[in-house]
Design goal:
Layout: E1 2-5, H1 7-10, H2 21-29, E2 33-36, H3 38-51, H4 54-66, E3 70-72, H5 89-98, E4 102-104, E5 123-124
Parallel strand pairs: 1-2, 1-4, 2-3, 4-5
Length: 125
Amino acid sequence: MKVVIDTNVLLTTVFPNSKNHWIQNALVSGELTLCVTTDILDEYAEIFERFYDAKTAELLFSVFEILPNILQINKYYFWRLIPEDPDDEKFVDFAIAAGADFLVTNDKHFNKIKTIGFPKNQCRQ
């Protein structure tokens, strides 16, 4: 199953008592394929460095280099479906470009895509 994971969810997957910890386990076991772009990886790195010490951030980010189920794809079209938060648009654009099964987020801005006929409703919260 291909997923795009918003940074706010990815941050919480490392904590064993988090409701999102199953995502980390599914990524490590290969049950999920994490779809990323350079923009998304850059945001992950920036946010990891902000929330964790440098050594922990580097360790967490290094997982993206060794997991075989990380799919990096280039996107060439910008749908601009969340103008209220342009920083979030890269996740929606990429979920469409990657043909992701799910876009996983806790951000309420993404609720807007549930009201549009296109793309097929992929937003889960």
